[in-house]
Amino acid sequence: MSATITASDVKALRDQTGAAMMDCKKALVEADGDVDKALEALRIKGAASAAKRGDREASEGLIADYIHANGRIGVLVEINCETDFVARNEDFAAFAQDIALHIAAAAPQYVTEDEVPQEAKDAEAKIFAEQAADKPENIREKIVEGKLNKWLEEIVLMKQTHVNPDKHEGKSIEEIRTAFAAKTGENVVIKRFARFQVGA
To answer: What is the mean pLDDT of residues 133-159?
Structure first.
């Protein structure tokens, strides 16, 4: 016998995921009332639809600012979405603020890996290759690749783990952005940022 799905079950799942009521109900029915399974199904569906939304134009949004307590570090970040309705939403403002705070603390240099100049990647790879010169030849390439990825995680915003790992369960900025886009049902783009530091 299949589990009875109540309206409160559906609402609880919706509150947790931000997914549409019908999607929540369908996920619970398919998971036979198992909330964890339904959550996982919605996450997969959300990530897939967020990827599809990636092609849609995001021309609305806002610019968030964050000034560190001592007034020595400041950030401006532009975050775009598809509609003015989402841009004016409190959750959107909170998301933008959270990203600005992260940028202030983590000091990324680029938004995405595509923005990192090829010459910079090549220069780092050369240094890592020299450092791995005394290692067996068959593993050198893997060592260089691993160190290059680690370096990109340090300088690329989307690859960085959020500075508040407890709040975001150790997720990267890209994972947080994807989940937020799935929740809003719109393409959400972290367009650009500027970070200022006194004396830097």
So the answer is: 89
